[in-house]
Automatic annotation (TrEMBL), chain A:
Organism: Domibacillus enclensis
SMART domains, A to Z: HAMP, HATPase_c, HisKA
TM ranges: 7-30, 156-178
Gene3D superfamilies linked to this entry: 1.10.287.130, 6.10.340.10, Histidine kinase-like ATPase, C-terminal domain (3.30.565.10)
Entry annotated with the keyword DNA repair: no
Protein name as catalogued: histidine kinase
Tree of life domain: Bacteria
Automatic annotation (TrEMBL), chain B:
Protein name in UniProt: 40-residue YVTN family beta-propeller repeat-containing protein
Coiled-coil residues: none
Domain of life: Bacteria
Entry's transmembrane regions: none
Length: 457, 314
C-alpha cells in the first residue's frame, strides 16, 4: 500500500470517527435537553392544573377541565379520584394493577410530584409522565396524571436524524475530497524524489527535484539535490581520474613498446634503448606506487600508527638518500623536535618534498630545510630557489595529477601525485600544508604539525 | 474480670428476646402499625402509654387473655407476647400466607385463615394445629359468633359458616366477590358484609344477611369501600377507606351520621364510650362520640396504622 493510500485511509477513518462522535454527542444532547424541557413543561402544566383544585372530592367540572386541557394540549392528561387506582387498598393484596404503587402513594401523600420516564404497563408504551397530588389535608383525594409518549419525541429526533445523516454525508464527501487533494499535495514531492532517486540509481547523476516550499519537504528536496550534486561531482572526478591515470600510463607504455620493438628488430643502440625502457618502467612503477598510496590514504585504509618521533632524524636520513642526486643542502634543524606521528608516512612527506625541490632546482642551488618548534606547533620548511610556481597555480598544486608544466615533458618526470600524498598525510596528522612560491625565484613548502604538549600525549 | 464485663454486656444488649413496655392496665386500645412495624397502646383518654416496635413486619394479630399473637402474611411463624410483661412468650410455627386470625372463646382455639390453601387452620392455645377446614379462594375476614366462625372468601363469592366444635362448614352464604369486613348485629341476628369492589371498580355497598336464613336481608350505602365495622347496642359503625369516611347506622339500618375519618382508615373500633378509627395514610387515631360521630380527639399513632385491638376489662 502506498503512503498516499495510507494517509488517505487514516484521514478517512478520522473523518468517520469525528462525524460519528459529533452525531452521537448531538443526539444525546438533543434528547437530554428535549426530554428535560418536556418534563419541565409537564410539571408546570400539572402544577397549574392542580392549582384549580379547591379541596374535597373531585368535581365533575374539575375532571372535565382536565379532559379539556388534554384535548387542547400536546400532552395526555387526566384526573384520577378512584382510590383503588391510587393504591389506597395496599396493604390489602391488589387483585389488579393500580395506576400508582404504594411508594408513589407515600410520596404523593407528602405532596411531592412524581416524574417518571420509561415503559408503562398501563399504557403499554414508553412515556414521560408527571403525577401531581390533589391533597385535602392528609387525604389523597386524587391525582393529575400528565404524560407524553416517547414516540413523539422519537419522531422529532428521527427527522433530525435525516437532517443529520444528509449533513454527515455531505461533510464526509467534502472532507474526503479535500483530504484527497491534500494527500496528493503532500505526496507529490515524495513522488518526484522517488523518481529522481530511481534515475540516480540508474546512473543519471543529473537528476534533480524541484525545491519549491520551505517546509520539511523543501529541505529534504534541497538536501537530496546537494547529495545528487556531490555524487555527480564524485563521478566527474572519478572519470577525470581514470582518464588521467590512463593517459599517464600510456606515455611510458608507448616508450617501452616502441623501444622494445626497436631492440627486438635490432635497430639502434640497444643499451640506450634498454636504459629508456628501464627509466620508463621505473616511472610507471613509481606512478602505480603513488596511486596505490594515494588510494589507500583516501580510503583511510592505511592506518596511521602514531609514536613520538624525533623529526630531525627523519630529515637527516632522507636527505642522505638524496645527496647523490643533489649535493647542496642547508639544514637548520632543532634536534629536540619530537612529533607524534607515523614514521613511515612522515619519511614519505620528506621524500616527496625533497623530490619536488630537487626536480625543479638547478643542481648547484641550495635547498634549505628548517625544523623549528614553536609553542604548540612544529614548523617544518623546505625551501628551494628553483623555477617556482605561478601564483595562480598555487591553490591547484595539491590536486591529483596537477602539474605546472602542462606539456608533461618527461624531463621533470613527476607523477603529479606527490603533493597530493603529502597533503593527505599532513592532514591525517592534524597538520597543515602551506605553499608559497614566486615564479623564477623558488618555492617554500611548510608543513605545520602539532607539537607534543608538555603534559605528554 | 474482662470476661465478666463482656458477659454482662452481652446479657444487657445482644442475646435474649426483646422486651417491651409492660401494660398493667386492662383498658387499652392497641394499634398495629405496618409502615413502621409496631404496636402503640392508647388509654381511653387518648394518651399513648406504651410503644412497641418490631424487627419484622406483622400484618395482623389477635388478642386473647393477656396475650397478643402476631402474624405476618409473609412469615411462617407467629409470635406470642404477654401484654402484662411486654415479653415474648412463644413462637408458633404456622402456614405462611395468613390473612386473618380469630380467637374462639368456646374452644379456646385460634383460627388462622390462610390465602395459599384456601383454608382455615385451627390451633390450640399452646400453638399446635388441630384441624384445617377448606373454605374458598382467599379466606380473609373472620368473625366468631355463637359457636360459629364466619369467613369471607375474598376472591370467591362465598361466605363460609364453620361450626367451631366440629370445624366443619355448616352453611355457605352467597356474597359479592371482593367482599371484606364483617360484623354481627345480635339484636336483629344479622351479619354485615363490607365491600371492597372488584378490579378498578370500588364498591359503595354493605350487604346485610340474615343469620337465620342466610339470605340477603338488606343493603346499606357507605361510599367508598366500606371495609371495617364496629357494633354496639344495635348501632353499626363503618369505616370507608376509599373516601376516608365514618358512617353510623341506627338499629333500623338508617344512616344517621357520617364524618371525615383519618386519611385512608382500615380499622374502626369501639373503645370506652368512643368510636376510634386509625388512618393508614395520616398515621393518626381519631376519637368520635358514639352515634353522632363528632370528633373529639386526634392522636398521632405511628406510620401505617392498620388494625386496632381493644381490651376493656374482664
Amino acid at each position: 500500500m502506498t503512503f498516499g493510500k495510507k494517509l488517505w485511509m487514516t484521514l478517512f477513518l478520522f473523518v468517520i470517527i469525528a462525524v460519528g462522535a459529533a452525531f452521537g454527542l448531538a443526539y444525546m444532547l438533543y434528547e437530554k435537553l428535549y426530554v428535560e424541557s418536556v418534563k419541565t413543561e409537564l410539571a408546570t402544566s400539572a402544577k397549574s392544573i392542580a392549582s384549580d383544585y379547591e379541596g374535597g372530592d373531585l368535581t365533575a367540572d374539575f375532571i372535565d377541565r382536565v379532559n379539556w386541557f388534554s384535548e387542547k394540549s400536546t400532552f395526555e392528561a387526566f384526573a384520577v379520584h378512584n382510590p383503588r387506582e391510587l393504591a389506597a387498598c395496599i396493604p390489602y393484596e391488589a387483585d389488579y394493577e393500580t395506576l400508582i404503587g404504594p411508594h408513589e402513594r407515600d410520596l404523593l401523600l407528602q405532596n411531592e410530584m412524581i416524574e417518571e420516564t420509561g415503559y408503562s404497563d398501563r399504557f403499554d408504551r414508553q412515556i414521560i409522565s408527571v403525577i401531581y397530588p390533589l391533597l385535602d389535608g392528609e387525604q389523597l383525594k386524587g391525582i393529575v396524571y400528565l404524560y407524553i409518549p416517547l414516540e413523539r419525541i422519537d419522531e422529532l429526533v428521527s427527522s433530525l436524524i435525516m437532517f443529520w445523516a444528509a449533513s454527515a454525508v455531505l461533510l464526509i464527501v467534502l472532507l474526503l475530497y479535500g483530504g484527497m487533494k491534500w494527500t496528493a499535495y503532500v505526496v507529490k514531492p515524495l513522488e518526484s524524489m522517488k523518481k529522481a532517486a530511481v534515475r540516480l540509481s540508474k546512473g543519471d547523476y543529473k537528476a534533480r527535484v524541484p525545491e519549491g516550499s520551505h517546509d520539511e519537504f523543501g529541505q529534504l528536496a534541497r538536501t537530496f539535490n546537494e547529495m545528487a550534486e556531490a555524487i555527480e561531482q564524485e563521478d566527474e572526478q572519478r572519470k577525470t581520474f581514470i582518464a588521467t591515470v590512463s593517459h599517464e600510463l600510456r606515455t611510458p607504455l608507448s616508450y617501452i613498446k616502441g623501444y622494445s620493438e626497436a631492440a627486438i628488430k635490432g635497430i639502434g643502440d640497444q643499451k640506450r634503448q634498454l636504459e629508456i625502457i628501464h627509466r620508463e618502467s621505473t616511472r610507471m612503477e613509481r606512478l602505480v606506487n603513488d596511486l596505490l598510496h594515494l588510494i589507500r590514504l583516501e580510503a583511510d585504509k592505511m592506518t596511521i600508527e602514531k609514536t613520538p618521533i624525533p623529526l630531525a632524524e627523519i630529515v637527516h636520513r632522507t636527505v642522505d638518500t638524496f645527496r647523490l642526486k643533489h649535493p647542496y643542502f642547508q639544514l637548520d634543524l632543532d634536534e629536540e623536535t619530537i612529533v607524534n606521528g607515523d614514521e613511515g608516512r612522515l619519511s614519505q612527506v620528506m621524500t616527496n618534498l625533497l623530490d619536488n625541490a630537487i626536480r625543479y632546482s638547478e643542481k648547484n642551488s641550495p635547498i634549505q630545510i628548517e625544523l623549528k618548534q614553536e609553542r604548540k606547533r612544529i614548523r617544518w620548511t623546505v625551501r628551494d630557489t628553483g623555477v617556482g610556481i605561478p601564483e595562480e597555480e598555487i591553490p591547484k598544486i595539491t590536486n591529483q595529477f596537477y602539474r605546472v608544466n602542462k606539456a608533461r615533458t618527461r624531463n621533470d618526470g613527476g607523477s603529479g601525485l606527490g603533493l597530493s600524498i603529502v597533503k593527505q598525510i599532513v592532514e591525517s596528522h592534524g597538520g597543515e600544508l602551506v605553499i608559497k612560491s614566486k615564479k623564477g625565484l623558488g618555492t617554500t613548502v611548510t608543513v605545520i604539525l602539532p607539537a607534543i604538549s608538555e603534559e605528554g600525549e | 474480670m474482662k470476661k465478666i464485663i463482656v458477659t454482662v454486656f452481652m446479657l444487657l444488649t445482644g442475646c435474649g428476646h426483646p422486651s417491651f413496655d409492660s401494660v398493667k392496665t386492662d383498658e387499652f386500645a392497641a394499634v398495629l402499625t405496618i409502615k413502621e412495624p409496631g404496636l402503640t397502646f392508647v388509654n381511653p383518654q387518648g394518651s399513648i402509654f406504651a410503644e412497641w416496635s418490631f424487627d419484622e413486619l406483622y400484618t395482623g394479630g389477635v388478642l386473647f387473655d393477656d396475650n397478643i399473637l402476631l402474624y405476618g402474611s409473609e412469615l411462617d411463624h407467629a409470635v406470642l407476647y404477654s401484654i402484662k410483661t411486654g415479653e415474648k412468650t412463644g413462637e408458633w410455627t404456622v402456614p405462611s400466607g395468613i390473612t386473618a386470625a380469630s380467637f374462639i372463646d368456646e374452644t379456646n382455639e385460634i383460627a388462622f385463615s390462610v390465602k395459599k390453601d384456601g383454608a382455615v387452620h385451627f390451633f390450640n392455645s399452646s400453638g399446635t394445629e388441630t384441624k384445617s377446614t377448606k373454605t374458598g379462594r382467599y379466606p380473609m375476614s373472620m368473625l366468631e359468633h355463637a359457636g360459629n366462625l364466619y369467613v369471607i372468601n375474598y376472591q370467591d363469592t362465598v361466605l363460609s359458616e364453620i361450626d367451631v366444635h366440629t370445624h366443619n362448614v355448616t352453611r355457605e352464604f352467597a356474597i359479592p366477590t371482593s367482599s371484606t369486613g364483617l360484623a354481627v348485629k345480635e339484636l336483629s341476628n344479622e351479619i354485615w358484609v363490607g365491600g371492597h369492589g372488584y378490579g378498578a371498580e370500588a364498591s359503595d355497598t354493605i350487604h346485610v344477611y340474615s343469620l337465620e336464613t342466610g339470605s340477603l336481608a338488606a343493603t346499606a350505602d357507605a361510599p367508598v369501600m366500606p371495609i371495617a365495622f364496629a357494633e354496639k347496642n344495635g348501632y353499626m359503625y363503618t369505616a370507608s377507606h376509599g373516601s376516608s369516611t365514618l358512617y353510623a347506622f341506627d338499629p333500623d339500618r338508617k344512616r344517621i351520621a357520617e364524618t371525615e375519618a383519618p386519611a385512608n382508615p382500615f380499622a374502626v373500633a369501639l373503645f370506652g364510650n368512643h368510636l376510634i378509627s386509625a388512618g393508614y395514610d395520616s398515621g393518626t387515631l381519631s376519637f368520635h362520640k358514639e352515634e353522632t360521630l363528632e370528633k373529639t380527639k386526634t392522636v398521632e399513632i405511628g406510620k401505617g396504622p392498620f388494625m386496632i385491638f381493644v381490651k376493656e376489662g374482664e
